[in-house]
């Protein structure tokens, strides 16, 4: 009897780990299904408008599943989320109004409902990218500022793959149809600020879904960029 009691905690931990692994596989399967469907629809359909209407839903689904695998969702963690979304949305409002941060551009209709000329979902996108890249950089045994630099480069790299696709499908449009170098400089500056904030905010920074989400997004936009 004492032996079985002693074995219970280990068995419970093993069962919990197995259940977590099953949930992770389900989440990966759902995200893969949505992104593959979107890739085929946008890349090969004669009428991609049907698939474009689901872009905001896909982004919210991805962010929701990603945050569901955050181990401890403390008040500090939600504070980070709120600030990241607010900063991301705020810099976009400043960006389209002044042209000083990223160059001159305006948002199309694909990303949904706007406020002050910026889709409301943009804040969620900045949060997802900041969080995912920040989590990935935590795997490196280097000082926090170097991690922030690595995560910033991951964010800028994903933006470089996203830009041609975004223009093609009316996420946003650039003046004179030219993506300026200033855009990537602005992305680097804002991303670095958010990554420093990420590192200095105290919450548990690990997520088993983060690497999958980043690679899925990267391959999705890189693949669409190669098709046209």
UniProtKB/TrEMBL annotation:
Key words of the record: Membrane, Transmembrane, Transmembrane helix
Highest taxon listed in the record's lineage: Bacteria
Transmembrane segments: 26-44, 50-69, 76-96, 116-136, 209-227
Coiled coil feature spans: none
Protein name: Carotenoid biosynthesis protein
């Amino acid at each position: 009897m004492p032996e079985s009691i002693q074995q219970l905690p280990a068995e419970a931990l093993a069962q919990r780990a197995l259940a977590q692994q099953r949930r992770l596989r389900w989440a990966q399967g759902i995200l893969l299904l949505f992104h593959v469907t979107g890739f085929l629809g946008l890349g090969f359909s004669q009428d991609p408008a049907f698939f474009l209407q689901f872009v905001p839903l896909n982004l919210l689904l991805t962010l929701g599943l990603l945050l569901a695998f955050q181990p401890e969702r403390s008040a500090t963690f939600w504070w980070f989320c709120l600030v990241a979304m607010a900063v991301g949305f705020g810099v976009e409002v400043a960006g389209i109004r002044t042209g000083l941060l990223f160059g001159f551009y305006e948002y199309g209709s694909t990303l949904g409902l706007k406020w002050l000329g910026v889709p409301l979902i943009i804040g969620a996108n900045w949060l997802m990218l900041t969080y995912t890249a920040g989590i990935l950089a935590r795997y490196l045994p280097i000082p926090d500022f170097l991690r922030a630099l690595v995560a910033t480069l991951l964010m800028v790299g994903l933006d470089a793959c996203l830009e041609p696709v975004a223009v093609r499908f009316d996420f946003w449009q650039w003046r004179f149809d030219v993506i300026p170098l200033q855009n990537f400089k602005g992305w680097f500056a804002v991303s670095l600020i958010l990554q420093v904030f990420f590192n200095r905010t105290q919450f548990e920074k690990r997520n088993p879904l983060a690497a999958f989400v980043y690679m899925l997004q990267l391959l999705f936009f890189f693949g669409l960029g190669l098709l046209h």
